[in-house]
Every structure is written in C-alpha cells, then in structure tokens.
C-alpha cells in the first residue's frame, strides 16, 4: 500500500511504547476492518514531525476483501491526516524495506518576508535571503557513491555509511506576491539514507545559502567523514518522504 501522512501529530512512523505513531493508526485500522492483528513493514522510518507523500507498507492478510475496496475501507477508519492512496497484491517475498531500490526525500524551506501559515507544519521558515545558486552548486557535490558519515547522526547504528545518491536537485517556486516569500525544495534520490542524513544536508546547505560556508565546502565536509564538520540538523517538519520505487516500477539496481 502507498500511504501519505502529515506527521505533525505523531511521534514518528514506527510503533513505540506508549507513544502515538502512524504505524499504530494503520494497524488499528486494519484490525477494525478485518479483525486481524497485523504487523506491517514500511519502506523506512520517519521521525516525529516528518511527513510522507509516498510511504510504502506491506502486510500479510487472509481477508477476502476485494483489492479495490481496501483504500476506501481503511481511510474511513483512519484519522484525516493519514490517507491510503494505493493498494495491490504482491509476491509473498516482497519486503517494503529490503525490496526498495530508490527513495526520494524532499526538504522544503520558505524564504522571505513572511511564512505561509497554511504550510507552517511542512516548511522550515527562513526570513532572510538565501543564495539558492550557491546551495544548488553545493548540492551537486553529493551525487555519486560516497561515505556519508559527515551527514549522518552519531547515533547511527549502521555498519557502513556508504550510499549512492543518484540525483540531488534544488527547485524554487515563484515568489508569492502577498507573502513576499517563496518555497525552496531540496530533493535527494538514493539507494538508501542514513539517520538524519537529509536533515543534516539541508541544515548545511542553509549555511551555504547564508554565506557562512562556500559551495565547495560540501565536498570537503563529505571527504572529512566527520559529523562535526557539517552543519546543524534541520528541523523535522520541513522533511517529507516523497517517493519509493521498486523493481516492478521499472527501476533496476
């Protein structure tokens, strides 16, 4: 299933003791619909306050409910900030995490005189000017296969910090004449991401945009393999899991 959610009210995606999570809401909705206690698998965790446009989950069910009825049936049992937008049956070997071949995350910054109050939960607001061309140039140094230790939380438990970034781009929306501000979207597509990786990249790029670092410093930070060399971890509410692709979508490893 493909799931979208506004993560503002949740303590992340993954079930945690005594905390409100997106996984809890989904599993409760399945139980309400089928009477089954499922343990679903997701393409990846998102932290508290982080959103998803295209999270992918899978679970096993013995229900005879027709495939085309699953989305509507679950959405009537879910809170309004979680929507199941697609459902299909897959091979029993499918695993939402391990079968994924590409993921895209988007980080959004609103830059200018006034924030957009209607998007305040999904954009990090930066009131002063940012050099978007310098940020775009800095972002280009991250493409390729590298050790991304510098852009990974020290709390990471991964044995290897080597990942491949296939695409890294920055897009700007037109200036909103009323607010005198505009949205900057940073997109990163890779074969996998480390803990807080996109938020650390975003926090470092903001410093590049402020003129506190040069574009070329992104290359040097990457080569240093030290978290201390990168910038701060950007706020979670600007981050969104944008898309997850699998072999069956025509993407090959």
TrEMBL record:
CDD domains: PseudoU_synth_EcTruA. Its EC number is 5.4.99.12. The keyword Isomerase applies. The keyword Membrane does not apply. SUPFAM superfamilies: Pseudouridine synthase. GO terms for molecular function: tRNA pseudouridine(38-40) synthase activity. Substrate binds at residue 105. Keywords: Isomerase, tRNA processing. InterPro entries: PsdUridine_synth_cat_dom_sf, PsdUridine_synth_TruA, PsdUridine_synth_TruA_a/b_dom, PsdUridine_synth_TruA_C, TruA/RsuA/RluB/E/F_N. It is an enzyme of class 5 (isomerase). Residues 3-96, 142-247 form the Pseudouridine synthase I TruA alpha/beta domain. Homodimer. Formation of pseudouridine at positions 38, 39 and 40 in the anticodon stem and loop of transfer RNAs. This is tRNA pseudouridine synthase A. The gene is truA.
């Amino acid at each position: 299933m493909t799931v979208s959610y506004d993560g503002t009210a949740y303590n992340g995606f993954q079930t945690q003791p005594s905390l409100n999570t997106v996984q809890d809401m989904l599993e409760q909705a399945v139980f309400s619909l089928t009477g089954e206690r499922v343990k679903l698998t997701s393409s990846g965790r998102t932290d508290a306050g982080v959103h998803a446009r295209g999270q992918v989950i899978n679970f096993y069910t013995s229900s005879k409910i027709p495939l085309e009825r699953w989305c509507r049936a679950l959405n009537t049992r879910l809170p309004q900030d979680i929507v199941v937008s697609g459902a299909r049956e897959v091979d029993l070997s499918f695993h939402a995490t391990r079968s994924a071949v590409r993921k895209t995350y988007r980080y959004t910054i609103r830059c200018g005189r006034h924030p957009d109050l209607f998007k305040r939960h999904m954009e990090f607001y930066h009131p002063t000017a940012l050099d978007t061309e310098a940020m775009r140039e800095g972002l280009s140094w991250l493409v390729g296969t590298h050790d991304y230790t510098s852009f990974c939380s020290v709390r990471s438990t991964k044995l290897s910090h080597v990942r491949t970034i296939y695409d890294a781009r920055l897009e700007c929306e037109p200036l909103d004449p009323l607010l005198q501000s505009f949205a900057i979207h940073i997109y990163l597509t890779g074969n996998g991401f480390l803990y807080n990786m996109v938020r650390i990249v975003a926090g470092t790029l903001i410093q590049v945009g402020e003129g506190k670092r040069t574009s070329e410093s992104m290359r040097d930070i990457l080569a240093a393999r030290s978290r201390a060399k990168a910038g701060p971890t950007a706020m979670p509410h600007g981050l969104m899991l944008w898309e997850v692709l699998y072999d069956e979508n025509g993407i090959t490893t």
